[in-house]
Here is the input.
Amino acid sequence: MYFFKSISEDVRSAQLTFTKHTKTRQLVLGALFASTAAVLQSAGGFLPGIGYFISPFATAPILFCSMLSLPLGLMSYLITNLLLLVLQPSELIVFPFTTGLLGLGTGAAFYFFKKRISIIGSGAILLTLGIVSLLYGFKFPVLGPGVSGTFSILMTGGVFLFSFIYNWIWVDIGLIFYKRLKLFFTKQ
Here is the structure.
């Protein structure tokens, strides 16, 4: 069955190969991922309109980096937050709780889980927690001004359903690009 298929064997072999690289090469790659994520996330502020369609792609660099190395993914996530503090401080509230958290959580799920449903579900739970904490904890209208700031089970269920489908798409996109770019990441 599609959701219960083990998908992380290719990722695990590439992780083992990636850890054999020098620390300098790993850090440079992490910095490149972090800067790419910061530029993509800040596109919404620099290019109003079209930039809001570009900024969700900030998940990809953090996801790929976390798939290769969890400590390096966490470092890239933190560096991206620091870069956003300088480049576009208005995006600093959105990235740590949505796109960045999704990339980091889904990349970490490749370490801990083997089945597709577990990887998708863990990323969806983290994204739901991030959106719900922005909506109800910080009262930040991440879903727009039409969404109420009071807690609703129906809204939380809708956010989880959206998060599950959204993360499913990201897992499949990540695997497709990862298989194509695997030679670049694991090249000696």
Q: What stands out?
A: The two ends are 35 Å apart (CA to CA). The chain has a mean pLDDT of 87.
